[in-house]
Specification:
The protein is an alpha/beta fold. It has one domain: P-loop containing nucleotide triphosphate hydrolases (Rossmann fold), CATH 3.40.50.300. Helix content is about 40%, strand content about 15%. The protein contains 9 helices and 10 strands. The chain has helices at about 55-60, 85-95, 105-115, 120-140, 155-165, 180-185, 195-210, 210-215, 235-240; strands at about 5-10, 15-20, 25, 65-70, 75, 100-105, 145, 170-175, 220-225, 240-244. The strands form 3 sheets. Strands 6-7-5-8-9 form a 5-stranded parallel beta sheet, sandwiched between helices. A 3-stranded antiparallel beta sheet has the order 1-2-3, with no helix packed on it. A hairpin with a 5-residue loop joins strand 1 (about 5-10) and strand 2. Helix 3 (about 105-115) packs across helix 4 and helix 4 runs parallel beside helix 5. The radius of gyration is 17 Å and the shape is globular. Residues about 5-60 have low confidence and may be disordered. The structure holds adenosine-5'-triphosphate and magnesium ion. Magnesium ion binds near residues 84, 85 and 147.
């Protein structure tokens, strides 16, 4: 699968956006095709009730634990540096999922091609492998946590199509930190991206991955995962979720 999509960016320019985050390229003169929600793209879902978004600080600190059905596709949605991978690592560390549950295109890229991989060239193979592993997990009733930005409907529709093949529910976890937090988190890590790129992905998420849109696409539950802005550590956030 080619994980790159043409979209109208937050500044109105037509761009190609790659879920790898390595590419956000202006393509002058081309026509954007994104921005249309993939409505009814997902199957009727089973499993946990929709608990909604915006639990807020009090809801997370003292609120109820959030159940996620085992065998779900847990779709992480968030711009670069929003805390997706740290959260996923905590799910593993806390034994909520096994290490093989976390499907990260970045990790698969390094695994298959090494650290100097040219994502422009290798992405189709990387995402094909990611999707193959996802199908393998779902076929045996195992949960999969898909760690990618997933800010665009096209990327989510691909995952949803695989979920549908296996009748697996899709649970979306949104990582919606404010710009200042994203900038600080991006600046404070080894894998530093241009600040502009982080802002653009955040804008794409705001435009194309609202809770309403995600529900309309068929997610059985959409949850906002708290982070630094709410003074919640990845460990504390992961602690709130149980696989049932
Ligand atoms: N809850 C949190 N509180 C404080 N700092 C955090 C929190 N979550 C993440 N961070 C910081 O943000 C940085 C980026 O987090 P992480 O690598 O998980 O982002 P990501 O969403 O996976 O980004 P990418 O999409 O680029 O892979 C981490 O290195 C960590 O320092
Ligand atoms: Mg990551």
């Amino acid at each position: 699968m080619d994980a790159r999509h043409r979209v109208v960016g937050p500044d109105g320019a037509v761009r190609q956006v790659s879920e790898t985050l390595n590419v956000l390229v202006k393509t002058p003169g081309s026509v954007g095709t994104a921005g249309r929600p993939a409505r009814a793209a997902l199957p009727p879902t089973r499993g946990a009730p929709v608990t909604g978004v915006g639990d807020g600080v009090g809801g997370w600190v003292g609120g109820p634990v959030v159940p996620i059905p085992t065998g779900s596709v847990v779709m992480l949605v968030g711009p670069p540096a929003s805390g997706k991978s740290m959260f996923a690592a905590e799910l593993v560390r806390q034994d909520k999922v096994d290490a093989g549950a976390v499907l990260s295109s970045d990790d698969i890229a390094v695994e298959l091609f090494g650290p100097t991989v040219d994502r422009d060239v290798a992405d189709p193979e990387i995402f094909a492998e990611r999707d193959r592993r996802l199908a393998q997990r779902l076929a045996t009733g195992q949960t999969a946590v898909v760690d990618a930005t997933n800010v665009l409907p096209q990327a989510r529709a691909q995952l949803a199509a695989i979920a549908r093949r296996f009748g697996a529910p899709v649970v979306v976890l949104r990582f919606g930190q404010p710009h200042a937090v994203l900038a600080a988190q991006n600046a404070g890590r080894d894998k530093r991206l241009p600040a502009r790129q982080v802002r653009e992905y955040a804008a794409l998420m705001a435009a194309h991955a609202t809770a309403e849109q995600l529900r309309a696409e068929g997610a059985c539950a959409v949850h906002d995962v708290p982070g630094r802005d709410e003074q919640v550590t990845p460990a504390q956030a992961a602690h709130r979720f149980v696989f049932v």
